[in-house]
Every structure is written in structure tokens, then in C-alpha cells.
Amino acid sequence: MRVVIQRVSEASVTINNVIKGKIGRGFVVLLGITAEDTEEDIEWLTSKIIGLRVFSDDEGLMNESILDKSGEILLISQFTLFASTKKGNRPSFIKAAKPDQAIPLYEKFTGMLSQKLQRQVKTGEFGADMKVALINDGPVTINIDSKNKE
């Protein structure tokens, strides 16, 4: 699993001109899933996201987590995070999990992240054409891959 985490002051996802999810201060998390991913990846990655200390403390240092700030999360499925651009100019997405495998993992990821956040994670819709709007705060953008834990 691979995520791109953006610290935001606000964000939303719109599908067919209807806002599906909207948050204030927190994270937009773009999630890519491969066929090799398991519940172990979900456990590790959700803990990493919740524990990230990228919010400012009283001294202005990035020393607090999303839990410390009572932040929100907007989770967006993003198979293109596993694009391969080695050959030619059209990306290949062969490493991305197929929907029959990815959807259950995405749903488990959403549930576990909500549980650890202690509030419901807002989401887009798996496989939909989504318009994501956000104000990146900082900017702070972090990439994490569950297969690169070291």
C-alpha cells in the first residue's frame, strides 16, 4: 500500500457535482493498493498515519499528531499511485490491485483508520471520477509505502 498524505486546512471531494466528503483541518490521504497488500499493511499504515507528528505545537514545532489536534481525514482511493512510467509515455497500472481485491481492502482501511482516529473518516467513492479540492497547509506532503518500512 502506498499513501500520499497532505496536511490541509480544509478539503472536499465532489462526485457528479455533489460534495461527497468535506473536512476542516486534518489530512487528505490518497491510497493506492496492490495485489500483494494485506491486513498487516493496513494495520501498519493506519498506525503510521495517526501517529505522524506534523502539526505545530505551542512553540511552532511539528510535534503533534492528528489526534492531538482533533483533526479530520478525507480518504481517496488512488490506483494511479502505482503507475509505472518505465516504458513509453502512457502509464501502466498493472501493479494496482483489481477492484474485487482492492475494494474490500479499501473498506477495511477506512474502518481501521476511523477506529484509530476515533471519528468517521470521510471518503470519496471507489472507482468514481472525483474532483478533490484542498488547501495544503504548509505545504506538508508525506509519501509512505508499507513495503518500505525501513
Automatic annotation (TrEMBL):
It holds the Pfam family Tyr_Deacylase. GO terms for cellular component: cytoplasm. Its EC number is 3.1.1.96, 3.1.1.-. It catalyses: a D-aminoacyl-tRNA + H2O = a tRNA + a D-alpha-amino acid + H(+); glycyl-tRNA(Ala) + H2O = tRNA(Ala) + glycine + H(+). Gene3D superfamilies: D-tyrosyl-tRNA(Tyr) deacylase. NCBIfam families: D-aminoacyl-tRNA deacylase. A Gly-cisPro motif from one monomer fits into the active site of the other monomer to allow specific chiral rejection of L-amino acids. Homodimer. Belongs to the DTD family. An aminoacyl-tRNA editing enzyme that deacylates mischarged D-aminoacyl-tRNAs. Also deacylates mischarged glycyl-tRNA(Ala), protecting cells against glycine mischarging by AlaRS. Acts via tRNA-based rather than protein-based catalysis; rejects L-amino acids rather than detecting D-amino acids in the active site. By recycling D-aminoacyl-tRNA to D-amino acids and free tRNA molecules, this enzyme counteracts the toxicity associated with the formation of D-aminoacyl-tRNA entities in vivo and helps enforce protein L-homochirality. This is D-aminoacyl-tRNA deacylase. It comes from Leeuwenhoekiella blandensis (strain CECT 7118 / CCUG 51940 / KCTC 22103 / MED217).
